[in-house]
């Protein structure tokens, strides 16, 4: 981590993610050499959403650089739900594919819940299947969502043992908020889940040794909501008008998190920036989950990937 000023440290998710991808690549190479198993990831995208296309391309390129099998299935916007489910069934049955990811959002005529529920839970590298959610809730081995997994890795790297710390998660989504709370409980934190309708939300935040912002509202968490010295993990990725009035008038935007960074950095002990914090961890953890799934399919104990 690099210093920002005397009080706050920058949690460099980009550097950590690059290191994690290197460790995954090395572990995957050892798995293939010892057991003949090459981890394989299949990504499915339906439609032409530009942001999704960029994200899927980045996933494919990173997977290939890690020496893993990378399959991308690009389907037309008009693809039916039945056709998509048939593809997932084929991927479920393919022994060379260990991870399946369906890029969201899906077109409106397709039931996302039905599609995600059709993925084999042991290949559900996004960790969204209800079986994996249940495994996480009761402490069983499963695949966990990438963003909470990456956030937990960054926290442990920054703080070491998390036992006994008071953690507040702002946000209750199935993708981030709820699994994040479960993972922090597993690390022996005392966890509060707050949200936009919590009464006196700033008071909850000020009590946090660890503050996770995952509410999806630009710069909602203000600097005076943060306990001095707290560790702040900002999961938000929001596009807002450029701070330059001329650029804003031209329709140009900038990316900000759910935390007012310029304010928070004056108070926090450590903080993730946006961009460059949690975001890069998502693809790295996707590869880590694919490697883990490949090991389990082969009956091999996965190597420990986090430092």
Give the DSSP E fraction (strand runs of 2 or more residues). 15-25%
**Assembly annotation:** single chain
* Count of individual helical segments: 11
SSE class: alpha/beta
Strand order of the largest sheet: 1-2-12-9-8-6-7
Total beta strands: 12
Are there runs of 5+ residues with pLDDT below 50, and where? 1-5
Main β-sheet, in a few words? 7 strands, mixed
Encode the helix/strand succession as letters: EEHEHEHEHHHEHEHEEEHEHEH
Give the overall silhouette: globular
- What is the straight-line distance between the termini? 14 Å
Word description of this protein:
With 307 residues, the protein is an alpha/beta fold. The chain is built from eleven helices and twelve strands. A seven-stranded mixed beta sheet has the order 1-2-12-9-8-6-7. α6 packs across α7 and α6 packs across α11. The longest helix has 23 residues. The radius of gyration is 20 Å and the shape is globular. It starts with a strand and ends in a 10-residue tail after the last helix.
């Amino acid at each position: 981590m690099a210093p920002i000023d005397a009080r706050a440290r920058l949690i460099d998710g980009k550097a950590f993610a690059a290191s994690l991808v290197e460790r995954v690549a090395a572990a995957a190479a050892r798995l293939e050499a010892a057991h003949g198993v090459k981890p394989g990831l299949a990504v499915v995208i339906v439609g032409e959403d530009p942001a999704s296309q960029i994200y899927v391309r980045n996933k494919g390129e990173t997977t290939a650089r890690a020496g893993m099998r990378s399959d991308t299935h690009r389907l037309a916007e008009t693809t039916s739900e039945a056709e998509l489910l048939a593809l997932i069934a084929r991927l479920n049955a393919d022994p060379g594919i260990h991870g399946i990811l369906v890029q969201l959002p899906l077109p409106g005529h397709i039931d996302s819940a039905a599609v995600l529920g059709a993925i084999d839970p042991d290949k559900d590298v996004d960790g969204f299947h209800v079986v994996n959610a249940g495994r996480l809730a009761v402490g069983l081995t499963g695949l966990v969502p990438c963003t909470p997994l990456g956030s937990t890795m960054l926290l442990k790297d920054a703080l070491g043992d998390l036992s006994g710390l008071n953690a507040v998660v702002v946000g209750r989504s199935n993708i981030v908020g709820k699994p994040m709370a479960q993972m922090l409980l597993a690390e022996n934190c005392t966890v509060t889940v707050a949200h936009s309708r919590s009464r006196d939300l700033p008071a909850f935040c000020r009590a946090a040794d660890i503050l996770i912002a995952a509410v999806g509202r630009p710069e909602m968490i203000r600097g005076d909501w943060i306990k001095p010295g707290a560790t702040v993990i900002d999961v938000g990725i929001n596009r807002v008008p450029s701070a330059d009035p001329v650029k804003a008038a031209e329709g140009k935007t900038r990316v900000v998190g759910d935390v007012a960074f310029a304010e928070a950095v004056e108070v926090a002990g450590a903080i993730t920036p946006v961009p460059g914090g949690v975001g890069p961890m998502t693809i790295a953890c996707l590869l880590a989950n694919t490697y883990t799934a490949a090991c389990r399919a082969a009956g091999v104990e996965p190597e420990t990937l986090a430092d």
